User: Fold Amino acid/amide ABC transporter substrate-binding protein, HAAT family from Enhydrobacter aerosaccus.
Amino acid sequence: MRRRDVLRGAAAAAVIVPSPAIRSAYAQTAKTLVIGGSVPLTGAAAETGLNVNNGYITAATYLNDVLGGVEIAGEKYRIELKLFDDASDPARATTLIQRQLDDGTDFFLGSFGSNIVLPTAAITERAKKPMVQTGGGADAIFTRGFKYVFGMFPRATRQFASAAALFKTLKPTPQTYSVIYTNDAFSKTAGEGVRLACDAAGLQRLETYELPAKVTDVSSVLASIRSKTPDILVCVMHDQDSLLIARQMVATNTNVKLLFQGLGPQLASFREALGKYSDGLCCSTYWDESVPYKDKFFGDSKKFADYYRSKFTRPIAYHVAGAAACIETYVMAMQAAKSIKPESVRDALAAANFETFYARIKFTPEGDGDALLLGGMIGQVQKGKLETVYPAEARSAEAIYPTPTWDKKA
Assistant:
């Protein structure tokens, strides 16, 4: 983590305000649109939490500083983010959100991790205040009848369809798979999604392994993997656990033809930590700066990425773009509703069909992302870089299969 990013993240944990250089006439006359929330700038989820935080900052800063604010129902507004560090702690996050509700905040952005998004969304739901978020995909968030929470991804059990489709295209065709997941709200349901998608694709499931929420050792699981030797091993868990498993696979020379890790390889820090052994790993990815979408704010993904890099040295990742799209989606919903009343904005979010630089934004009736429009692409690490290998129309490289064994990776 670079110091510049730490400093910017720490500043964001309080309040985002226009910089002195651009306190122009618009800043004096524009109304303020407050959007609250919490983000994990410290603790177990901080690596991705910082990406989410930086995405929120990027969008708000651009809309305020470059575009001079946004127009809603004939009024000019500047966006003020009130984001606080929840330290990856659900109890702290719920306290922070309740405090903001008590202070009169009407609109919220989500934290990272279903274990935080779910309880905080329950609080904003009871208050009938919208939450747009890019950090929680557990089915439980979208199956409890909530009407005010909207997510930038399909629910967890619907997220693996693209990967299973990729597996069917590989040559020679994989025949068997095993899946490992951790005992947390997102990973358990994601693991179920893996089983549903891979079974439907005709792969034979050899074994399913459930690990505790806090993983320290997987030696017994890897011994079973070595004895059964699936063609594909799928790991659905957060990035730190993915890194631990990969390292222990290297140490024990546990090889499969393809290792798919849902979260981890997307992050430059993960690839750097694993070094040459990251090559060949596959993962889900929901955005790349080469995607062809356009919007009326940034213009396109490349311009968004360029602006982000002018503000941050931290490598860009899809959670950055998804977070920025949350704010764009709020603005477009408010413009469609011609209102900043929470109920009207909620109805406009439910009816959303907006194109952003990130994707076309459309939600299911339950609030998760449309499985096709907001579904994932598949990335594979090749020579240290994450290449898109599926679907074909977004492909930047052909998938490598089988991948080299650990001892053959240069």
Q: What stands out?
A: The chain has two domains: 3-153+288-361, 158-285+376-408. Residues 125 and 146 are 6 Å apart (CA to CA). The first strand starts at residue 31 and ends at 39.
